[in-house]
Structures are given as C-alpha cells and as structure tokens.
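Board notes (copied after class):
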Amino acid sequence: MSDEGTEPAAPTLRDAFGAAAKRAGVGAVAPGEAPSGSALLKAIGGVRGIVESILPGMVFLVTYVVTHELVASVIAPAVVAVGFIVVRIVTRTPVTSAIAGAIGIAFSAVVAMLTGNVNDAFLPDLFINSAFLLALLVSLAVRWPLLGLVAGALTGDTTGWRDDPAKRRVAIIATLLWSAMFAARLAVKTPLYLSGATEALAATKLLMGVPLYAAVLWITWLLMRAAYRRVAVTALADGE
C-alpha cells in the first residue's frame, strides 16, 4: 500500500522539548560523551556567541561610566545588538540567537526609558532569573527535576531515568546546581538594584553571566557523563 499523500505525524511534546534542548547549550554534548574545551565553547555559542553575549553589557557599562546618561547608556547596546544581526545576515549565518538577544536588549531599554531609571534596564534580567529559579524549584518539589527532563529529552529516555537511582540522583544534584546559580545571581543583583549601584550591577551581570553559566554547564556535563556512562558500561557487561 502506497504511503503517498500521507501527512507526516505532528511532532510530540517530547520531540519539541528535545529539539529545544538540542538547540540550547545543554544539547551540545551527549550525556555519555566526554566533555572537552571545544564542546564547552560550542555549548556557550562559540567565540561569536561569547562576544554577542558580553559586548552589549560592556558597552552599557562603559557608556554609563563615561556619560551617566540614561538614553545613551541603553541605546548604545541596542545599536551593537542590531550590528550583530546585520553581520550574521551578511555572513549568512543563523540569526535567531542574535535577534533574541536584540529583542531582550531593546525590551530592557524600553523599560528603562519608560520609567526614567537606568537601573530598570536590569529588571527583565531579574525577572528572567526569578522565573528560571521558580521553574527549577517547582520541578524538584514535584519530583521531576528539570535537568533530568532535559537529559531524558536528549537521550530519548524521557521517563526511564526516574527509575535509575544514579540518573535520578544526578538529575536532582544538577537541578539544585542550576537553582543555586540563579539564586546566587538574584542574591547579588537584587541588593545592587535596590541600592541604585548601576556600575556594580552592570559589572556583576557580566561576571555572573557567561563565565558562571559556562562553569555550571561544565559541571553538569561531568555529572551527566558519570551517570550515563555507568549505565552504558553496566548494560554492556550484562550483555556479555
């Protein structure tokens, strides 16, 4: 019987979640694969990704220190972000991440200009960190640690990992680790925001951005590698 004219099945929620995870940094290395410097660099977007993540924040900081002008300080990073989009279009490289970054920067600029307070440019960042922290803590509370779901989506083991003590333990530890990262950002940035320490807030965002994210990602893959490699070795031994 011919399959012509048959429409492809719609992607399931698992497929969509797995695809999203693979597009994100956490999908750059398979859980059982040994992490390397190049894999870590790829996971955080490569050299271009690092520049696109850090440079707008540096431009904001330098502009504010020099001018202490709200409009100049929030517009300058937006111009840099648009420049990244143009470069990607000219070089025919994917523009999704650059567009997402530009939207985030533009939104922060609009918030700051609407309130007239340059510190409010950091409000979206505080809310985003709060949302991620809440999602991670809720996942722990309902005993479906989010990092376990991510690893399951990447490996196709969407539910089985909960029945494996090592995988479940690693998922909990990794989820706690990411929770600690977002909590640490909020613990440091919130007092700075409330006290109006703009320069310190901008510098802290840079220091606790890509460098901290890269360190947490690296540790996460070491944990995942240990758990998934153990399972693979056990399965191989049982088959012999």
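Comment from the instructor: The CA atoms of residues 78 and 105 lie 6 Å apart. The mean pLDDT is 82.
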